[in-house]
Structure formats: structure tokens, C-alpha cells
Amino acid sequence: MSKHGRVLVAMSGGIDSSVSAVLLHEQGYEVVGLTMKTWDYASSGSSKKETGCCSLDSINDARGIAVDKGFPHYILDIREEFGGHVINNFIEEYMAGRTPNPCVKCNTHIKWDALLKRADMLNCEFIATGHYAKVREEQGRYVISKGKDDWKDQSYVLWGVTQACLSRTIFPVGGYHKPEIRQMAAEMGFHDLAKKAESYEICFIPDNDYRSFLKRQRGDLVEQLSGGNFVDPTGKVLGQHKGYPYYTIGQRKGLEIALGKPAYVIDIQPKTNTVVLGTEEDLQRQEMLVKDVNLIKYSRIERPMEAVTRIRYKDKGTSGMIESIGPDIKVTFHAPVSAVTPGQSAVFYEGDDVIGGGFIVKTD
């Protein structure tokens, strides 16, 4: 009989999830390892060598640790669900002139759902992942807060996880810094794992080139959009672009247009196949609307409240007011923010705690 209960650990084969599994095993949990196959690189059309969480090497690394520590390990093929939801959404968002957040979609709609379903089948009370975040129960709510390591903190991509899921979730590495995790891996005898490089690219875009991915997936359609207009904020035509899905708000490099001064993408208008260019000052916004909101710390926002809002993964956040507008949240920043991008996640914080988050739908 286990000391703390039975836990299903999502094991990608990377250092964070592997150390998570071993830590829980050493703490007296009855650990079951699960590696999810979300994607195969051959399907991406990329020539890059298969690496990362979906590779055969990573699956074997996860299984090797389970065998070494004597707990069971399973492989779950969720490529169909992943492709049908995450990848299709990724493509559709760019075709709609927005910039998607595939990791949020994957966490919310694929990984946690798959983990909980399999946890129930395997009689596991809990699920665990290697995310750098914390979760606690407070006044009947399960609250996500930032991980101890500011640089590795992953609370931003977890805003969509529901209360039902959080009530059964453990984040074993959330209270550590990454160098501590590497040291632990070495002390556990997993020296190769301790030296394993970080992986930052989107798993289904191994070459980190989303434009080439779009071309492979929707090349004919994007080709038809080539030749649309670059315009300035007054509507004056400045030149032609290669198709609006190839651009994102705030982009400066790769525009391939000479204007004699720095130019940035400040708006994308899919209906007219138009990309608006402007100055860095034109990128500044002080208000935005956020939809598909999932609240974590509070069940509702009854009145305007102070919060720090992050609009991208490595954003430090900007102070402002958040208020409910029907099912949506309106954010009014105390100071202008650059490159607020529709399609990206906005996550609201109170101190280190995640109030909630959603997808940016429009700006002022």
C-alpha cells in the first residue's frame, strides 16, 4: 500500500517530468508513468532530426527510468486528438489573422483530459506533470501560482486548466530552481538526463519555422493570398506582401519592404488581405478584451480589480484594472503596452497567484 496514494505522471522523457516521477516515487506515492505520443515529425514534412517529447528516444528515456525505479509505464497515442484540435486550431488562427497559443490549447483540451481519463482507468487518485508551477487549495478553490524559478515559471500556459483537473494535480518541481533539478537528476544516477538540453520549439514545428509549416499544410491557400497590400495607418499602399498568415503583430524582421525607417506590423485585416505597417509607437495599446476566460483563484470577478496581466510567455506583466464584461474580461493597463496580439493568451495575476486567463480578441 502506498504512503500517499496512486499518481499518474506525464513523462515526456525530459528532465523535469522524469525527476517529478522519481521524487513522487521516493516520497511514497505509487507511481505510474505515462508518455503521450502527440505528434510524429514525419507528418510535419520537416527534415530536422526527430528530437523532443514525441521522439522514440524520449519515449525510451521515460520507459528506462520507470524500469530502473520499478514502476509501470504506458504509452498513449493521442496523435489524432492532438491533430484534430491543437494543430487544426493553430492553422485556423493564422488563417484568421491571429497568433495562436498551441501549448495552452494542448494543456487545456488534450493533455489534462487524456491524463484524467487514463488516471481513472488505472485507479490513480492524482496526476502529475513537470511544469514549473504550484497548486494549492484555498477557500474551496484550487489556485495555481508561479513556480519558484522565475525564468522557468510555466503558470502562464496553465490558465485553462479547470478546477476539477487542478483538484487532482501535483507539480513536483514547482518549488525548485532548474539547476537544482539537474543536480537531483545527477544524484539519482541519470547523468545523461542531467545534461539534456532545453527544448523551446513547438513540438510539431521542430525547425521553429511556422511559415514553412503553414506552407506545407495550406500552401495553395496561402499562395492565393500573396500580393495583398501593405498599407500605412491612413490606408496608403506601401507595397505587396506574401499573404497575411505569414505575419504577426509586432513583427519587424522579414517584411522585405524598404521604407527608409523601421516598420512594424500593427494590424492584420484578413477580410481584405491587408497588413498594416506603422511605427513602434503605433504598437502601443492601453485596453484589450479577453474571451474564453477561465477563472482560477476566484469563481467570478464581481467588481473591477487590480491585476498584473501578462500577454506573452516571457512577458513580465503590466499593472492595470480587470473587469467583467459579460463572459469576457476587459483589461485597462496603467501604462501603454506594446504588441498586444489577438489570439495570444492574457493571464491575470494577483501577486504570484493566477486569477485566470483567456484569449486576446481585440485591442483599443
- List the secondary-structure elements in sequence, H or E: EHEHHEHHEEEHEHHHEEEEEEEEEE
Distance between the termini: 58 Å
Please estimate the helix content.
Answer: 25-40%
Number of helices: 9
CATH superfamily of the largest domain: HUPs
Q: Number of folding domains?
A: 3
Strand order of the largest sheet: 12-15-14-13-16-17
Shape: globular
Q: Which helices and strands occur, and which strands form pairs?
A:
Layout: E1 6-10, H1 15-26, E2 30-37, H2 41-44, H3 56-69, E3 73-77, H4 79-95, H5 102-121, E4 126-128, E5 133-138, E6 141-146, H6 163-166, E7 169-170, H7 178-187, H8 191-194, H9 210-225, E8 229-231, E9 237-240, E10 264-269, E11 274-278, E12 284-295, E13 305-310, E14 318-325, E15 328-338, E16 345-350, E17 353-363
Parallel strand pairs: 1-2, 1-4, 2-3, 4-7, 8-11
Antiparallel strand pairs: 5-6, 8-9, 10-11, 12-15, 12-17, 13-14, 13-16, 14-15, 16-17
Helix pairs in contact: 1-3, 1-7, 4-5
Overview of this structure, please?
The chain is an alpha/beta fold and 364 residues long. The protein folds into three domains: 6-130 and 172-194, HUPs (Rossmann fold); 226-279, SH3 type barrels (Roll), CATH 2.30.30; 283-363, Elongation Factor Tu (Ef-tu), domain 3 (Beta Barrel), CATH 2.40.30. It has nine helices and 17 strands. Strand 5 (133-138) and strand 6 form a beta hairpin. The termini are far apart.
